[in-house]
Write a structure and sequence with these properties.
single chain; alpha+beta; Nuclear Transport Factor 2, Chain: A; eight-stranded antiparallel sheet; 51% helix
């Protein structure tokens, strides 16, 4: 007889055990970093008030902000400009090729913090570098959580595999708590912590009962983790078997010729706003980006941190300001909505403050469940060794 018992149940006991042991370190890391990232912007502003400082007054137009960015450093151009956010504007920048050699520039930074009222530059930083300082603490945590600092798609693929394994682990863990007969009173006891028990039993109860209470949320978090890391490889093909997915606006597009100038940020914003009003999008503009590599401006409506299923987007041709696509937050097929809601689920934004707090607690719970799972395994392993020693002496 193998450890965990014979038959199908024994197989799933071993599967749950060894997948859990393999995932424990990853889930502790992802749970703790994920909890911090739920309030990334607020924590960043608390750590770096100088970067996020603003002056009272009306905000400058996006094109004026873009001009101030290039005036501060002629080597860069604005790529993403937030609108209507609290605090300074964290403008993301693209680096121009070397004017002499045409070689790609060495990127000293990729974020520039701009006072929206005055256009003053509060500071710059490299997002996602290995350097850990007060200014880079939250970007460090974010990059660790999303890519493990691995190059290209390597980190995302690895984290996607972890998310898939976590999904299997959660499903098998739930199944193993079910009673072997129809005596559901036994299962009810699995949801509670027993009083006046030894430390080993308390650890087991924490692992089992905690896993049951958080089970649905953990499954949702695992699924969203797969969606954000293995979208094209796993998530979209699975969803498309149930509901069709609309093509992305940038599919099949190529960059406009280098000599063709882009329309201004302000003109792109005006075109997108008119299209949004015609489509019945009531939320306010929250930012816009210029993607030269796809020949588009993208304009978002609705703050990213707001409660709901996600933002609406309007895409505008970079060279002509013609509207290419309008995507409402709840528009498209059921598959489109399911795909769109994965980021708000993963970040705890669906229900506003309540779900953000819940996401923080869930991240801490995931770390706790992983640690208690290792402890349960260790206790049982130690007990088996003691029993084997007594058997040999007998």
């Amino acid at each position: 007889m193998t450890r965990g018992g014979p038959g199908v149940r024994g197989f799933f006991v071993r599967l749950h055990r060894y997948v859990g042991l393999a995932l424990a370190g990853w889930l502790v890391l992802l749970g703790l970093t994920g909890s911090a990232l739920v309030y990334e912007r607020e924590l960043d502003a608390w750590l770096n008030p100088g970067l996020w400082h603003t002056t009272p007054g009306p905000a400058l137009s996006p094109q004026t902000i873009a001009d101030r960015v290039t005036a501060a450093d002629a080597r860069v151009t604005a790529r993403w400009i937030p609108i209507g956010t609290a605090g300074a504007l964290d403008v993301w920048v693209d680096w121009k090729p070397d004017p002499v050699t045409g070689a790609a520039a060495v990127r000293d930074y990729d974020q520039m913090f701009v006072d929206p009222a005055t256009g003053a530059i509060n500071g710059r930083r490299r997002y996602g570098g290995w350097t850990l300082t007060r200014a880079t603490a939250l970007p460090f945590v974010h990059t660790l959580h999303s890519s493990l600092f691995l190059p290209g798609r390597v980190g995302a693929i690895l984290l996607g595999i972890v998310a898939l394994a976590w999904l299997v682990h959660g499903l098998t863990g739930f199944w193993l708590t079910l009673p072997r007969s129809l005596r559901w009173g036994q299962w009810r006891r699995a949801w509670v912590l027993k009083r006046h028990v030894r430390a080993e039993r308390r650890t087991y109860d924490l692992h089992r009962a905690g896993g049951l209470w958080a089970w649905g949320l953990m499954i949702a978090m695992a699924v969203s983790g797969v969606a954000l890391t293995l979208s094209a490889e796993v998530f979209e093909p699975v969803v498309a078997r149930v509901s069709p997915l609309s093509p992305h606006p940038w599919e099949g597009r190529t960059a406009a010729a280098a000599e063709v100038p882009s329309v201004s940020f302000d003109r792109a914003l005006a075109a997108a706003t008119r299209a949004a009003m015609a489509a019945g999008i009531a939320t306010r503009t929250s930012g816009l980006f210029l993607g030269p590599e796809i020949g588009l401006y993208g304009v978002s409506f609705g703050q990213q941190e707001a409660a709901g299923v996600g933002q609406a987007w309007v895409y505008v041709d970079r060279a002509t300001a013609a509207v290419v696509s309008v995507q409402t937050a709840t528009g498209g097929s059921a598959g489109d909505v399911v795909e769109r809601v994965q980021l708000p689920i993963h970040a705890g934004r669906v229900g506003g403050v309540a779900t953000r707090v819940l996401a923080v607690l869930l991240g801490l719970a995931v770390a706790m469940l992983s640690a208690t799972g290792v402890m349960v395994w260790w206790y049982k392993r130690r007990a088996r060794r003691v029993a084997a020693g007594m058997h040999r002496r007998g």
